[in-house]
Specification:
This protein has 257 residues and is α/β, with parallel strands linked by helices. It contains six helices and twelve strands. The site of adenosine monophosphate has 17 residues, from helix 5 and strand 11.
C-alpha cells in the first residue's frame, strides 16, 4: 500500500437488480465492489455501472452504488490462497472431486453433501452465501434467501492482480474477484472450507477452497443455468455474529502475487 499519501481508502459497491413477474418482484442481477484510493473512485464507478448494464442474466432496472470512506489503518492485509485447476468430462465428476476436497479439509461427508445439495436445489440465486456447520451440515446463518455477503475487499496490488489474470489466461476479472472473496473468508477464525459456482449462465467453472488452497473445478454446473451459489463451512463452535460482522464490514486487501 502506498504509505504516507493518504490515510483513507474508498469502498465502492454496486448492486444491480431487475424487476420480474406481474408484481415487479426484485431479482438480484449482480454485485461487485472495489477498495480504492480517492483518485480512482470516478473511474471505478463508471466501470461498475458498465458492468451492471452488461450482465448476462439480463438488463438492470435499478443500479445502486454506495461509496464509503475507510480508514486505512483498519484494513487487514490477507495472503491469497494457492490456486489449483482441475477439469472433468462432466458435472458429476467435478462434484465428486469437490466433495472429496471438502472431506479432506475437515468437512464431514454429510455436511459436504448437504452444502452441495443446497446450491443444486436453489430455484433462484441468492444475493449472498449460506454458512453451514462443517460437522452436522446444519445451516447457521439467517436461513433466508439473502444469505451473508462478503464486502469491503479488493486486490492489494492491482498490477500484480492483472499479471496473475494474464498468467491464468483470464480475460475477465472473475477469477481474481472470487479469489479475493475466498481468501478474505479463509482468513477468519473457525473457517474450514467453501464451495461455489457462479450464477453467470456462461460460466461453468466453480471452486472449492480451504485455509490454503483455491481449487478451480470445471464444469460445476450446466451451461446456460442462471443458478449459482456459495456455501461456507465453519467449525461448530464458530461465533456466527462475529463472523458475519467480519465478512460484511471488515475491510481486507488480498495480496495476490
Ligand atoms: P458469482 O460467482 O458472483 O456468480 O456468485 C455466485 C453466488 O455466490 C451468487 O449467486 C451468490 O449467491 C453468492 N455471492 C455472490 N457475491 C457474494 C458475496 N460478495 N458474498 C457472499 N456471497 C456472494
Amino acid at each position: 500500500m502506498d504509505k504516507g499519501l493518504s490515510s483513507v481508502l474508498f469502498s465502492v459497491r454496486m448492486r444491480a437488480t431487475m424487476k420480474i413477474g406481474n408484481n415487479g418482484e426484485e431479482l438480484h442481477l449482480s454485485g461487485c465492489e472495489r477498495l480504492v484510493t480517492e483518485n480512482q473512485v470516478l473511474e471505478v464507478v463508471q466501470n461498475l455501472l458498465k458492468r451492471a448494464e452488461e450482465h448476462t442474466r439480463g438488463r438492470a432496472d435499478m443500479v445502486n452504488i454506495q461509496i464509503e470512506k475507510i480508514d486505512k489503518s483498519n484494513v487487514r492485509i490477507v495472503p491469497a490462497l494457492t490456486v489449483q485447476s482441475r477439469e472433468f468430462p462432466n458435472v458429476s465428476q467435478a462434484h465428486a472431486d469437490a466433495i472429496a476436497f471438502l472431506i479432506e479439509t475437515g468437512v464431514s461427508e454429510t455436511a459436504a453433501r448437504k452444502g452441495l445439495e443446497a446450491i443444486e436445489q436453489l430455484k433462484t440465486s441468492m444475493r449472498g452465501a449460506m454458512i453451514y456447520d462443517a460437522a452436522s451440515g446444519n445451516r447457521l446463518d439467517r436461513l433466508d434467501m439473502r444469505g451473508v455477503r462478503l464486502s469491503h475487499m479488493d486486490c492489494k496490488d492491482k498490477n500484480a492482480c492483472l499479471e496473475f489474470l494474464k498468467r491464468n489466461n483470464m480475460k475477465s476479472t472473475k477469477l481474481s474477484e472470487a479469489l479475493v472473496l475466498a481468501s478474505k473468508a479463509a482468513s477468519v477464525e473457525n473457517y474450514v472450507a467453501e464451495l461455489c459456482w457462479s450464477d453467470d449462465p456462461n460460466y461453468t467453472t466453480g471452486y472449492v477452497a480451504s485455509k490454503k488452497f483455491y481449487r478451480r473445478l470445471s464444469p460445476m454446473k450446466h451451461l446456460e443455468s442462471p443458478i449459482g451459489g456459495r456455501v461456507f463451512f465453519f467449525k461448530p463452535n464458530v461465533d456466527i455474529k462475529a463472523t458475519i460482522d467480519f465478512f460484511e464490514k471488515e475491510p481486507a486487501l488480498v495480496d495476490i502475487k
